[in-house]
Amino acid sequence: MIRKMLVTAAAVTMSMTTVGVASVAMSGEAGAAAKVYTSQTCTISGGVTFAPPGLSHNGTLGKKSSVKSTSAITATGAGCGTSGGTTTSISNKIVTQATDCTVPATPPATLPGACDTYVAGGTAKYAYDNASNLATAGVSSICSALSAKPIKAVNNGNKVSLIVNPDCSGVNSVVPGGKCGATGLGFDLSGNTSVTGLTYEVLLCITGDTGTSTTNSFFTDYLGAAGNAASPIVIASGTFGGSSALTFTKA
């Protein structure tokens, strides 16, 4: 009888212990801290590498109907670029459609100068990297690439996706005198994020550059390449600087 009572008491003790452990586990889950999203501004550095060899007055003739540029962004600031101890970098491939030199341009448009070197029947018949087309081609290419694959960023230490609308609303080129300053050129993206009530703006001001006959002033070199047919300038890459920033607004 005594043995039976001891066995019963032990079973009751084990059952209570199990309940206690379960209670602690459940209370731990219920007490997990909720993610907090905030309004904040993050400094942006990085740049864009244009499809080789780079932007020039006439552009380049090639065999592919589309070409790729790549952008790489690092956002810094409290809670901006690190999630769970891991730094989140923002990189994207931007695909731009090249111009088919064998298709007559619709007035008043003209074909890029690179098309003048096209040889009838040749396979290299696509012109790309025409400097003067950066603003228009850049907007449509960015819109297409980022609406299909949203930018991954970090807000207050939490991962979020930056949504680009397929209709390109919220994607704009920046001209001198705009948000990038008197001599600033670049792109401005804005819209909703994957978090309800949290919106964003990404301002990309291209300030410096590298390439052939460049001066590390994107504004100067871009105007030289776009406006002068005799210019030897080829801009291989541009760097983000100046007012470049990622800004979150929490409603």
- What is the overall silhouette? elongated
Mean pLDDT: 86
Number of helix segments? 3
Question: Strand-and-helix sequence, N→C?
Answer: HEEEEEEEEHEEEEEHEE
Q: Supply Rg.
A: 27 Å
Give me the secondary-structure category: alpha+beta
Strand content: 35-45%
Weakly predicted, low-confidence segments: 1-29
Give the gist of this structure.
With 251 residues, the protein is an alpha+beta fold. The chain folds into 2 domains: 1-32; 37-250, no CATH class. The chain is 22% helix and 36% strand.
What can you see in these coordinates?
With 251 residues, this protein is of the alpha+beta class. It folds into two domains: 1-32; 37-250, no CATH class. It is built from three helices and 15 strands. The protein has helices at residues 2-30, 134-148, 218-227, and strands at residues 40-49, 60-62, 66-76, 82-83, 86-87, 90-97, 99-100, 126-128, 151-155, 158-162, 171-174, 185-192, 198-212, 234-240, 245-250. The strands form four sheets. Strands 1, 3, 6, 11, 12, 13, 14 and 15 form an eight-stranded antiparallel beta sheet that branches. The protein has a three-stranded antiparallel beta sheet with strand order 2-8-7, with no helix packed on it. A hairpin with a 5-residue loop joins strand 12 and strand 13 (198-212). The longest helix has 29 residues, at 2-30. The radius of gyration is 27 Å and the shape is elongated. It starts with a helix and ends with a strand. Residues 1-29 have low confidence and may be disordered.
